[in-house]
Amino acid sequence: MLQDVTVVTGGSNGIGRAIVQHLLSRGRAVVNVDRAAETEPSGAHYIEADLSDADTIGRVFDDIAGRFAIVGLVNNAGRAIAHSLEDTTPDDFNRLVPINMVAPTICAQRAARSMKARGWGRIVNIASRAATGKELRTAYGGTKGALLSMTRVWALELAPHNITVNAIGPGPIATELFRAVNPDDSERTQALKRSIPLGRVGSPDDIANAAGFFLAEENGYVTGQTLFVCGGLTIGVAGI
């Protein structure tokens, strides 16, 4: 019998890497599919791939399915663009739709084949709180909102096969990129923290813990749901 495995896209850095490490620490076998190489070996099986290319995704999943039984998928890879409504162009959508919408769809299609054969599966889509509305995020928020909608559709279609599909909407998360753009001692970062009910920026581990919950085999009665891991930002602003 092939070894069970969870596929994590965009698992080399930031949130994706935290999810990979979380799963590995719990004895799960993991395949990290990312265009970027791992800065340090994580212990996962690494496959370099450009997920904006549909044919590449097909080849990658053929390779994985030939070596493993895919029982978990985390659609984490994504791209963001921050433009005002006036500055948003069709090219913004051309750049975001392939990686934020098409790639998760193809990954889910291919993973579901293996999950159906195995008799169960868990799919987790990493979206964003921007899907609920955030300035300068017309294209990004739109594609992430679409991912939440697709989560519910897939949950309904795959439920008869004992496959659950859920989504996570991260709020501000202190990844390497976030810290580079938002130094902790800057007034902008401090103002952001004051606006968060829990009073802090999240960590990649906060998202990894949520993903681990959805991916657990014993968690088989939650599907089609979105969990916003945002310190309370989606329910209100602190102090107002």
CATH homologous superfamily title: NAD(P)-binding Rossmann-like Domain
Using the 3D structure, state the CATH architecture.
3-Layer(aba) Sandwich
Structural class: alpha/beta
Order of helices and strands: EHEEHEHEHEHHHE
Please tell me how large the radius of gyration is: 17 Å
Show unreliable segments: none
Biggest sheet, spatial arrangement of strands: 3-2-1-4-5-6-7
Outline the structure in words.
By secondary structure, this protein is α/β, with parallel strands linked by helices. The chain has one domain (3-174, 205-224): Rossmann fold (3-Layer(aba) Sandwich), CATH 3.40.50.720. Helices cover 43% and strands 18% of the residues. The chain has 7 helices and 7 strands; from the N terminus they run E-H-E-E-H-E-H-E-H-E-H-H-H-E. The chain has helices at 14-25, 54-67, 90-118, 138-158, 176-181, 187-195, 204-215; strands at 3-9, 30-34, 45-48, 68-75, 121-126, 163-170, 226-229. It has a 7-stranded parallel sheet with strand order 3-2-1-4-5-6-7, with helices on both faces. Helix 4 (138-158) links the parallel strand 5 and strand 6 (163-170). The longest helix is centred in the middle third of the chain and has 29 residues, at 90-118. The radius of gyration is 17 Å and the shape is globular. The mean pLDDT is 96.
